[in-house]
Amino acid sequence: MENNVLFWDYLEKLVFENEVIIDRPKGTRHPKYNDMIYIVDYGYIKNTKSMDNNGIDIFVGSNENKKIDSILCVIDLVKKDSEIKVLMGCTEKEKNEIYEFMNNTEYMKAIIIKK
Fold it and tell me: Which of 11, 18, 56, 79 has its CA 20 to 30 A from that of 73?
């Protein structure tokens, strides 16, 4: 169980020691899928790397407390990859909406893991 605690500590360290870049603000459309509209700010953690060789993805919610207490594990059949997406400062409603957003296609499925 110690590793579970350390996982969340390390994730917080990655986020809080690096800049969060919001490149898809709330209300904007996905660049490739015009019918997908972001319900919270979305971006990446600068100076990190994920499976797609880009920064680790992050959803930033409206909660003033920018606590990290969940991640999404995503499988994408189009890109044939998997990756995590960090949820920071998300309300329970936003977490549920993000979960639905990420599962809204037949080619991508996600599970949410809570701290």
Answer: 18
The residues, any chain, with a CB within 8 Å of residue 55's CB and separated by 6 or more, are 21, 44, 45, 46, 47, 48, 49
Show the tokens assigned to 112: 């949410």
Q: pLDDT band at 73, cuts 50/70/90?
A: very high
Q: How many Cα atoms occupy the beta-carbon half-sphere of 68 within 13 Å?
A: 19
Q: Is the pLDDT of residue 41 over 80?
A: yes
DSSP letters, 40-92, are: SEEEEETT---TTSSPEEEEE-S-SS--EEEEEEEEETTTTEEEEEEEES--H
Domain ranges of the chain: 2-114
8 Å CB contact between 15 and 86 = yes
Q: How many other C-beta atoms can be found within 10 angstroms of the C-beta atom of residue 37?
A: 13
